[in-house]
Amino acid sequence: MKTGSMIFSFLQVPRCRIHSLANNWGETFRNFNNTCEKNFSIRPLGSRIYGLQGGHRKKWTRRPITTDTEEGGGTKSRSTKPEILSETISISSTINVNKTQLGQLQEVQHCNIQEIAQNKDLSSLVTVIVFDIETTGFSRENDRTIEIALRDLQGGPNSTFQTLVNPQRDVTNSAIHGITTQMVNKPGIPRMEDLVPILFHYVQSREKPGGYVLWVAHNARVFDVPFIINELRRCSRQIPPNWLFVDTLPLARELMKSGGTKLSATSLVALREFYKIEVEGTAHRAMVDVNTLSLILPRLTCDLKLTLSGLVEKSFREVDIINSKKKKKNSD
DNA sequence: TGCCAGGCCCTCTTTAGGGCCTT
After folding, report:
1. Residue A319 CB lies within 7 Å of the nucleic strand B
2. Span A292-297, mean pLDDT?
3. Residue A254: nearest nucleotide (C-alpha to C1')
4. Which class would CATH give A4-331?
5. What distance in Å separates the CA atoms of residue A268 and residue A293, rounded to the nearest whole number?
6. In Å, what is the separation between the CA of A75 and the C1' of B8?
7. pLDDT tops 80 at residue A173
């Protein structure tokens, strides 16, 4: 067994001006749970909601093996009361990459979505993670990821994960997201191959025993998921078979088509304006967009009367993308 | 030389084309 260890200080962000988000978050999920069916039991985010802006203050450091988890290790307990947090925080997690464990994970058979969706105890099996990536462009072949952020909607300690990624090439679309070549092309920023085992380990730590991870992103089917698949392939890795994906873009289309709403477009911005969601920070930074979508998701699913089971039924797997590609290739 | 992303959806369509959506 080979174990690689690394310290990942992936957040050094100002925890400030998030009071409204903290309130919205709890309120959103309370309303959502009250309105929707009981089996969609996402808990309100508890005590720790981290700053949403600090893109320029994020810092990756690689250090000798130690653990310093302010939020998650349980060594330091904090109030669960949402509060305005002004100090800069640093979260570190010891990442022990156990290749045997990861190998076992990949041996799990590809899941049957219908069977999962019909599980009576679905909420105890599914971890819902909203995620977003920033990239150097739209091409999954030629472009690279430069930032990744995700939020486990269960909330609680260490419910967010965010880092810049070194693409080992110039960033030519800084005007879109504000991430420059100088910010990511330096030794302190992890390359994708460094990040993947850490990310897998983090996600594994959020999974429920024998459960599934439901990844949610806007335009996930066409952009984020194929992009991630290609990134993993370049690292000789695969999507774990217990990962499912939900694309909120078709959900938005469904809502728009259903009529009775003033939703006029299906972009993330249009949805944010439609639901009157205010989020601190600049759009097109990964964590800001994650927070936006995290607030949109419960409202969107509620409007569509979608339970967790319904959401799982609308999910897709890596193999579905591969199969649809093959299908298209054969029909061309 | 020409292309330079790709899939979904709509319609003035289906033997197609263009807009939307993601960075």
Report:
1. no
2. 97
3. B9
4. alpha beta
5. 7
6. 49
7. yes
